[in-house]
Amino acid sequence: MIRVPSPAKLNLFLHITGRRENGYHELQTIFQLIDLYDWMTFTPISEDEIQIEGLGEVQLEQNLIYRAAQILRPHAQNPCGLHIKIEKNIPMGAGLGGGSSNAATTLIVLNQLRQCGLTEEQLAQFGVKLGADVPIFIYGLNAWAEGIGEHLSFIDLDQKQFIVLKPDCFISTQLLFSQKTLTRDSKPTTFCAYQLEPSNFGNNFEPLARELYPEVEEAMQYLDQFGHAKLTGTGACVFAEVTDEMNVDDILKHAPCKAYLVHSLKESPLRLKRRRLLGRRQVVRQRFLVPPFPGSNPGAPASSAATLRCSGASRFFLGMEARESQRAPATSSARSSTRTSVPARTRRC
Fold it and tell me: What is the domain class of 1-349 according to CATH?
């Protein structure tokens, strides 16, 4: 049995810079990982099937955890059935990436349990088929993102605390995208520009979310009394950075909806665990799914047979990092025409 955390994220800003011919929107955003976690438990079972506990309201075929498990099935060297239990703490449909994080965690864990032998980059390429923000949870690092969110440049962000409010409503992403008044032509910008004036960077979905959902408007107005409130993703969650002037306990106590105090993460717990198990100070720190882009600076008991087939759990994460270390370039300047490793992290301005 393996029990692992699956973290949430915030979008520190979100701009739509254009629209592709296929209808997908071009975005720019910063993904900030936070210490709000779902907990996922993976237990081998004798039946050759995937059982999921804790998400009964989601149909199995639409469940990202199930789809992630199925997408790796052709690559399994040691197929085994699994009972996956999820303890949900991340609100669903809130713009915090809970479903994408669960899918990424499933890909990482099953890659080892089923001995698929896939690299981090290959897992990310599978992940983007499930959702544009799945790769960020595969890599487990904060990132500047472009494209539909899959072009990643990993960045250093200061350690911070945030107050997050979850309004009592469910926002339809499709509805927001369908609005004619949605801004789709924000001028492309850079991470350096964000560092200089982060308060100038907002979320293109925020005006619509406030207009169409009174609960979001109420939460934004409440947080704006104490700081600079922002929408994450397409909502419904809103957040504000904690400052010294804030009485955090009082703000949380009187919030008009469910409130959380969260801390930023430098890296996800899964990535940290893999690095510690490997016994190395540094793992591959950056990957692009495409070349660099302009301007981007009830739990069933496991039978003995099932346990034997999934014996890879005792070597959890070691295989991936060993393969990644073999694939790492000899120098930080090594480049490829299709997939690129880049220097340690995006530099600060």
Answer: alpha beta
Is the pLDDT at 342 greater than 70? The verdict is no
Domain positions in the chain are 1-349
Reported residue count of the chain is 349
Strands 81-87 and 50-53: parallel
Give pTM, 2 decimals: 0.82
Give the integer Cα–Cα distance in Å for 277 and 315. Answer: 9
Structure confidence at residue 307 as a pLDDT band (50, 70, 90): very low
**Cα→Cα distances 162→182, 242, 259, Å:** 27, 5, 10
- Cα 90 to chain centroid, rounded: 12
Omega before residue 236 within 30° of 0, cis = yes
SS3 3: strand
| Residues known to be catalytic | 9, 133
**pLDDT band, very low/low/confident/very high, at 175 (cuts 50, 70, 90):** very high
Enter the tokens of residue 71. 């997408």
- Cα–Cα–Cα angle for 18, 238, 200, rounded to 5 degrees: 55
